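Q: Hi! First time asking for a complex rather than a single chain. Here are the components, and I think there are two in total. Is that enough to go on?
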Amino acid sequence: QKEVEQDPGPLSVPEGAIVSLNCTYSNSAFQYFMWYRQYSRKGPELLMYTYSSGNKEDGRFTAQVDKSSKYISLFIRDSQPSDSATYLCAMSKGNAGNMLTFGGGTRLMVKP
Amino acid sequence: SQTIHQWPATLVQPVGSPLSLECTVEGTSNPNLYWYRQAAGRGLQLLFYSVGIGQISSEVPQNLSASRPQDRQFILSSKKLLLSDSGFYLCAWRGLQGWDEQFFGPGTRLTVL
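A: Yes, that's all I need. Here is the structure of the assembled complex.
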């Protein structure tokens, strides 16, 4: 079993839809949670960073962490075709070395 | 502001040939540096990380090696490439400030034929 599970998709939605992207994890030692966006043939770009349970909002993006359920989500409101990309969740335990454990990524397609 | 560079952007190499990929970071000092490989449609696999000059930790056994000859330079090498070395290679850095977020370079797409 992988430490971090993420549905690979592809997830196809119409423009303007609310998108929900999710990851589950098995190790309760994870403390810091990140979402990256990766366009085709580009490096991942950090979108959101959260620590502990709760919500964090940045423009059209909301990151949610539920540590009791070992479940994190990224919501995208008013989705745009430019949001079409692969979204990777990542998490760390905050210990020495600060390694990140990544999900496999969910490919999102927003159709105009 | 900090920037990270990788080159070359794309590379096609025959099996058995050597490899050298370079990564440099600007605008920060003493960063942690990382090499990842991303196979098509798959997640990121950590290959090497470095917390300082000359300090390299390997995460997976393979025919690749890494070196950090300068504070902001990280090099990925191989003496003889295998077909299985094909993939998208990403360099990332993490600063001493902040938390655990890593920032990625543009990547190098390697095809071994």
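A: The mean pLDDT of chain A is 92. Let me know if you'd like any chain examined more closely.
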